[in-house]
Amino acid sequence: MAAAARPGPEELALLEKLLGLPKGNKYGVQGERKVPVLQTNNGPGLTGLITIAAHLVKQARKDQLLGSTAEEKAVVQQWLEYRVTQVDGCSSKEDTRIILKNLNIHLEDKVYLAGNIFTLADVLMYYGLHHVMVDLTVQEKEKYLNVSRWFNHIQHYPGVRQHLSNVIFIKNRLYTNAH
Question: What is the enclosing helix (H) or strand (E) of 47?
């Protein structure tokens, strides 16, 4: 089976590396749903994928990944919440189909989830969907053409994919103008 980022500690380690942060953060999980936890040296630990990821972005001084305007910040937050509530909660083929359909519609006229800027939402959605995209057939990838185009773009964004397997797409179908 292809390598996949597990939600939580491994995914946060990938993000840490992408952001150029030194290794050394101690991650754990808590509870039945295995919610990520960051052990901090001073003060209480941080809990939750979005909270920790936003903290890492700020620590790396790459706040633009959280959006620049109030509207962009809200859209990024919306997609981060969607990732945690919908994608991570996905438990059936039908759930996956609905998520891919919704994303496909959203991405019809966008390069990135938040419009025309690469954000933390793109990174975490990519990590959250990697295991799904690896298992799609060629026909399924073609059915969700906008998601496939976006995913292929993100996996080639410098530093994002790292050790995760490269998902193969038939390129001549991804970049057509036909809908």
Answer: strand 46-47
